Amino acid sequence: MSASPSAVKAVRWIVLAGVLLGLGTFLWFATRPPPLTVQGEVSANRVDVSPRVNGRVADLRVDVGDTVQRGALLAQLESPQLRAALLAAHAALAVAKADFDRIYSTRPETIAARKADLAAADADVVLSKEVFDRQTSLITTGSTPQQRVDEATRNLETAIRRREGAKAALDLSIKGASDEEKALAGAQVKQAEASLNQREVDVSELTLKAPASGQITSRVAELGENFSPGAPLFSLIDMGDLWFTFNIREDLLAGLKIDDKLEVTVPALKSMVVPVRVTMINVQGQYATWRATRATGDFDLRTFEVRAKPLQPVDGLRPGMSAITAWSARGR
Fold it and tell me: What tens digit of pLDDT does each residue of 27-60 get?
């Protein structure tokens, strides 16, 4: 029994519709832009350890690959010049303190002598006063000439002045140096202490310690080598604080914000997928600007650094490893 013409026509339309649908689907996939894949890398804080003073390497305690804690001894430098300067600073402080003690103290023998001088001056005043009183009494009766009275008066005034001088000398001996001399001596002691403290700090800088916990990634120092201030001897990275960094053109940042969750693939770890959280979106310098071709009507686009930290620690993750993430859903 043959099919009716209407049924054959319906089948043809169904087949045609299927072919058109398949062709449309193929054209849609063929013209659709491929998904954008962004490649970045694993980064970490890097610290270069360098001396603040000039010195020669006398001892090395760590090597490349060692993991150290903050404050661990890395190397010991030596500098005879700094050691000599430290000894000189100690001596200078001792001299300043000795001069300070001299300024603030008076010998007991000197004070005793000044007291004896004052006692003698007091005795002279008493004697001169008695002579003056006697001559004054005799002048009223005419038993002594005026000249004797004048001499007694002059001797009494002289004795009083000598007593005043002896008293001033005793006070000066007890007080010691002047306020200005004491202030100068105190300032010289402080200056010597500051100089000694600076020398001690310089010598302490000959001991290089780890400023942070991490792993030694490079070592330039060798035994016997002399290094100037600021020259790096070691480099270490903080393996406990790793992140992923990507350089993204600004027109690809649509909808991205801090705390967004992403998935990153690490080829070095057998393509492990690592969930991460965006922690920073920061524009880079002008050197990272993508330049447009003005003839096309485009405009310059800046490049942004996007940082993302793993939600959980990842074993085996190291700085420099490549990281890949799909960016097709972030808009283009």
Answer: 655 555 556 788 899 999 889 999 999 999 999 9
| Burial of residue 231 (number of CB atoms within 10 Å: 0-12, 13-18, 19+) | middle
Both tokens of 317, joined, read 């993750």
Tell me the CATH number for domain 34-44+240-330: 2.40.30.170
- Residue 332's pLDDT is 41
CA 307 vs CA 208, 214, 260, 262: distances in Å: 32, 20, 11, 11
Q: Is 232 exposed, middle or buried (0-12, 13-18, 19+ CB in 10 A)?
A: middle
Closest to 232 in 3D by CA, of 245, 216, 243: 216
Please state whether beta strands 261-266 and 303-310 pair in parallel, antiparallel, or not at all (unpaired): unpaired
Question: 3-state class of 50 per DSSP?
Answer: coil
Does pTM surpass 0.85? no
**Contact indicator for 325, 271 with CB cutoff of 8 Å:** no
Measure the CA angle with vertex 78, ends 74 and 81; round to 5°. Answer: 145
Task: Kindly give, in sequence order, each residue whose CB lies less than 8 Å from that of residue 235, ignoring residues fewer than 6 positions away.
Answer: 46, 47, 48, 49, 216, 217, 218
CA-CA distance, 99 to 106, in Å (whole number)?
12
Q: Where are the domains of the chain?
A: 34-44+240-330, 46-79+212-235, 87-200
The architecture that CATH gives domain 46-79+212-235 is Beta Barrel (2.40)
H or E element: which one contains 76? strand 73-78
SS3 content of the chain, % helix, strand, coil (to 5): 45, 25, 25
DSSP code at position 71? T
